Amino acid sequence: MFNTKIAIDLGTCNSLVHVRGKGIVLNEPSVVAVSLIDNKILAVGEPAKEMIGRTPADIKVYRPLKDGVIADYRVTQAMMRYFITRSTKNFRLFKPELVVSVPAGITSTERRAVIEAAMSAGAKQAFVAKEPILAAIGAGIPINSCSGHMIINIGGGTSEVAVISLGGIVTVHSVRVAGDKIDVAIAEYIKKKYNLAIGSQSAEEIKIKVGTALPQRELKFLEIQGRDLILGLPRNIKISNNEVCEAISDVLTEIVQAAKIVLSETPPELSADIMNKGIIMSGGGSLLPKINELVAQSTGVPCFVAEEPLFCVIKGTGLVLEHLPEYKKVVMSKK
Hints:
By secondary structure, the chain is an alpha+beta fold. It has 3 domains: 5-133 and 313-334, Nucleotidyltransferase, domain 5 (2-Layer Sandwich); 143-177 and 250-310, 2-Layer Sandwich (Nucleotidyltransferase, domain 5), CATH 3.30.420; 179-247, Actin, Chain A, domain 4 (Alpha-Beta Complex). Helices cover 36% and strands 29% of the residues. The chain contains 10 helices and 19 strands. The strands form 5 sheets. It has a 6-stranded mixed sheet, sandwiched between helices. Strands 13-12-11-17-18 form a 5-stranded mixed sheet, with helices on both faces. The chain has a 3-stranded antiparallel sheet with strand order 5-4-6. The longest helix has 25 residues, at 241-265.
């Protein structure tokens, strides 16, 4: 009765929390504000994200996860504790069981760090499971069938391409190129072409509003403000969807290349299954318009974006949480 079970999609950009019996209860940026004077955590999640680019020198706002893994252990632990406390009543009385999603390319040391952070944050037991399998479960793919299924999960810090069959990963390739690198590429392009410096949030806004993976006939423009690098004064420019496409093409090529590597390493029987069923895309990066068409054109394999791609991993983590005995093969380790 009092055994609370929580699933956490611990992302580089956003973290989502699923509580058994309630569904998704939290969707917050993986951002923390820390006072450099006394090392005190001032804000976590949305309140911290609102501080980005607006803080004095003695306050640091950053993400404690980099490329899908823990970069700052203490702050990640505090962030997880915040998520657990926000999601559950009676947290101090009844410690929850946790299932946390991690990249497939994670090392054993990085995996242990996640488990230890979860335990220190207040978990009674902590399990970790690989994101490509969780994304596949969340996308409705029957992972336990003997048929081959291919998924591309594009998060904030990592993109992972995997072929799944009989409940396990047959072949996988991870690249630390994803949503964050797309934002950086947009900011760099604007800096070079227009001598204008923009912040990470402006770059993300450009990606969301006028981003595209393939050139478009119909031009769309977005007016943005930045700082002129020559005069040092604020200046506005208009950027088109096709300029964004040009800016991010190299980053997308790396993700497509990962898909090609996985296809080349896939056994012929499973390749035939993938050709028939197509590739499924999940994660926030798959919301970029035309990205599935780019993958299909580059690989020759049909490609589809999953329903609610942003929630595939947390949905899958939640399902594993609800049916732990059934998915015991998916769970990598516990403590």
